[in-house]
Amino acid sequence: MVQTALECDGFKTVGAPDGLRGLQALRQYRPCMILLDLSMPVMDGWKFRSEQQHLSDPELAGVPVVVLSALLDCQEHGCNLGAADVIPKPIDLDRMLRVVEAHCRH
User: Fold this and answer.
1) Beta-carbon neighbour count of residue 68 at 10 Å?
2) How many C-beta atoms lie closer than 10 Å to residue 22's C-beta?
3) CA 83 to chain centre
4) CA-to-CA distance for 39 and 103, rounded, in angstroms?
5) From the CB of residue 88, how many other CB atoms can be counted at a distance below 10 Å?
6) What is the pTM for the complete model shown?
7) Tell me, what's the pLDDT at 62?
8) Is the peptide bond before 31 cis (omega within 30 degrees of 0)?
């Protein structure tokens, strides 16, 4: 749903089923931002963010992260992760599109 909404609005997207593949996609595609779900298999969002922040390439380490989460305390988790923003689930698509546009269309 998230990818479809973004692509319909003209954004190019790359999805990853887990955090490990997300790190691989980050290195390969060098996105303008990351929409990060905290609850993922293989490598969760917390581990992904820690790995991202410790990458040797400062551009990749600094790619802004927006947390998407259904956790009750998702705002606190996002703050602790240094997220640029937090979008609680269920996702408000209009809000998500505004956030992505703010980071990706300068």
Assistant:
1) 21
2) 24
3) 9
4) 23
5) 16
6) 0.90
7) 94
8) no
